[in-house]
Write a structure and sequence with these properties.
The complex is a heterodimer of chains A (130) and B (115). Chain A has a single domain (3-129), classed as Hypothetical Protein Ychn, Chain: A (3-Layer(aba) Sandwich), CATH 3.40.1260. Chain A has 130 residues and is an alpha/beta fold. Chain A has a 5-stranded parallel sheet, sandwiched between helices. Chain A contains 5 helices and 5 strands. Chain B is of the alpha/beta class and 115 residues long. Chain B is built from 2 helices and 5 strands, in the order βαβββαβ. Chain B has a 5-stranded parallel sheet with strand order 4-3-2-1-5. Classes of the chains: A alpha/beta (130), B alpha/beta (115). At the A-B interface, α5 and β5 of A face α1 and β5 of B.
Chain lengths: 130, 115
């Protein structure tokens, strides 16, 4: 069984990203290849901000996701429209908008909602965290 | 093919949730996925006619409703007894369900996303 995770809750206004992270750790500890992809939508795209600097005595949720993605080879997709409107800009988008900087953290990639549709059609279940 | 329900529950002007939920519905429909909508709570205010939001308030999502049929989104469910809609001043393309039908509806879909 393969899952897609759809995360829509803000990393700062909800525990959606944290709960999904716990889920992915638990699931992959038993079934290593059970997560085909994680799609961040709405305010959840703020997870891909490389400039966020949490206090040192708190979890660095961006880094925690990067480590999980690397360890289990799970792609982390951010909805491109939702991300760009919130200032999460990849290098290529920064050229397109003629900006001098980009903010997308490593391990995350900007994709259209079509990628979510593809994930929905190629996995057994989609689980939303909001 | 999986049947998908998009459940809108947030007010159209309180956050982007409603708009981004509708965006997802339109994209799913564009990819020919079977998709229905249901509205509850503050999201029901999308149905009210003659909305004129200024740019600070957000986009007029009511204007999208007439275009849904062109995406083959034909089922837009609401609960019959709700405190939000005024029949005389509401968009008429919805299917009102009684309480039992409303509760059963959620079992008809393989996936439900809430916004």
């Amino acid at each position: 069984m393969q899952y897609t995770l759809l995360i829509t809750g803000s990393p700062y206004q909800s525990k959606a990203c944290h709960t999904a992270l716990r889920f992915i750790k638990a699931a992959t500890s038993k079934y290593p290849n059970c997560i085909k992809g994680v799609f961040f939508y709405e305010d959840a795209v703020l997870i891909g901000n490389q400039t966020a600097q949490p206090p040192r005595d708190e979890i660095n949720i961006v880094k925690a996701w990067q480590e999980v993605a690397k360890q289990h080879d799970v792609p982390l997709y951010l909805c491109i429209a939702a991300a760009v409107r919130r200032g999460i800009i990849s290098e290529s988008e920064s050229h397109r908008y003629e900006l001098g900087q980009h903010t997308l953290a490593e391990q995350f990639q900007l994709e259209g909602l079509g990628t979510l549709v593809d994930l929905m059609n190629t996995t057994n279940k989609v689980i939303q965290f909001r | 093919m999986k049947r998908t329900l998009i459940h809108l529950n947030s007010g159209p002007y309180s956050s982007l949730a409603c708009k981004e939920g509708l965006d997802l519905a339109l994209v799913l429909a564009t990819f020919e996925q079977p998709i229905d909508l249901c509205l509850s709570g503050a999201a029901l205010s999308i149905l009210t006619r003659e909305q004129n939001p200024i740019s600070e308030q957000g986009k007029n999502l009511h204007k999208l409703l007439d275009g849904l049929e062109f995406y083959d989104i034909e089922n837009i469910f609401i609960e019959k007894d709700n405190n939000w809609t005024d029949k005389k001043n509401s968009w008429q393309g919805v299917t009102p369900l009684d309480k039992a039908q409303w509760q059963t509806m959620f079992s008809n879909y393989q996936q439900i996303f809430r916004f």
